Amino acid sequence: MTASSASGASGKLTRGQWLTLVAAFLGWMFDGLEMGIFPIVARPALQQMGITGDAEIGKWMGHVTALFLLGAAGGGLVFGWLGDRIGRVRAMSLSILTYSLFSGCCYFAKEPWHLGVLRFVSALGMGGEWSLGVALVMECWPERHRPWLAAAIGAASNVGFGLIAILAYKFKVTTESWRWVMLVGAAPALLTFFIRLFVPESERWKESVTGTVSRPIREIFSSGLLKTTILAISFASVALIGTWGSVQWAPLWADKMTGGKVPDAKAMTQFVSSIGAIIGCIIGPLLGGMIGRRPTYFALCLCSLLSCGFLFRTIDEYGTLFLLTIGVVGASTASFYGWLPLYLPELFPTRVRATGQGLSFNFGRILAAVGALQQGELMRHYDGSYAKAGAIVTLIYALGMVLIWLAPETKGKPLPD
């Protein structure tokens, strides 16, 4: 009997279930911290390395962001595969150790390409941790808790995103101080000891691989799951392109609008965005639990399209209206990161779940990397205008409004075995 079925029979949650949630929550929180570090340190770091002018900074920001996203995509596949072969817990420990140590190594970067390489390797671990944590929690907890669990998953990363913004607000990030911020990225390494000592393995996974050899990569691209895999990649790609191709650039845009004369602008922009994102990540899966997965995704795309259109097409100065709009945009565009951990596990059977959802979510990062590079090129085309480039990239949400109706509705259905 699995942990989830055992708790379902008694109506009580076990210590092991709570430990899996705590470990995964902390892992996702540090994921968000990793994602939030570079938008804050990018401008002063690149300036210290001799990169000047918004167009050139935008180009390098696009390159490093693209490498980070490609690394996360590779990590989702590699560590997802490991999770289906050696278990969720062991693979998750390795993924957290990878992203924390190599993020801390950015302290020693001397050239822009050093940042790109180190961010690529750290992203391998971050991409893997997301898929492994989602699989572990969803397999260990009862179905009735699934929307709230997805909300916790999405909110956790944005808690980390907000924490690094608070740190940057208290500790001014300049060309002389940015390296110390990167050392914060090494802190999650301590989490691996807690996971290895106290977190139990998924009983559902153990049962699924008993007496069989798992071949997850082959199976998710087989005729039975190919359409599902392609659609899952598409849904994640829409969300990730919108976020990484434009919204993640908001702190740099704020810094440009203030001419660098308001050091708090970057941190405040990211903090407000993270507060909105936490709210959105809670609303997304809860709404999916109430009205269904497909109508919710459609609504999230529509809200993101409208809010991003208002931000990038009507606002041209840093101030109260900008920050309020950033909060709304943060809530709209980040709500997908609560919806995705609710929906993706419902598409794949247990024996390939970590690989399937990890590949789907993180393959979307490859397309998002293209979006990030395109944002950099669009900025050069529009003479360094973050707003004009962002207005073009965020049209991607219109595509999501169409694609979602090709997918199955999974509300009220158990996880496939």
Mean pLDDT, to the nearest integer, reads 84
Helix content: over 70%
Structural class: mainly alpha
**Span from first to last CA?**
13 Å
Rg over C-alpha atoms, rounded to the nearest angstrom: 20 Å
What percent of residues are in strands? under 5%
- Please trace the helix and strand order, writing H or E for each element: HHHHHHHHHHHHHHHHHHH
- Please tally the β strands and state the result: 0
The biggest beta sheet, please? none
Low-confidence stretches: 1-9
Number of DSSP helical runs: 19
Note the overall shape.
Answer: globular
List the helices and strands and how they pair.
Elements: H1 3-10, H2 15-48, H3 54-86, H4 88-104, H5 112-140, H6 146-170, H7 178-184, H8 191-198, H9 203-208, H10 216-220, H11 226-245, H12 250-257, H13 264-291, H14 293-314, H15 320-334, H16 336-343, H17 353-381, H18 386-393, H19 396-403
Helix pairs in contact: 2-5, 2-6, 2-7, 2-8, 3-4, 3-5, 3-17, 4-5, 4-8, 5-17, 6-13, 6-16, 11-17, 11-19, 12-13, 13-14, 13-15, 13-16, 14-15, 14-16, 14-18, 14-19, 17-18
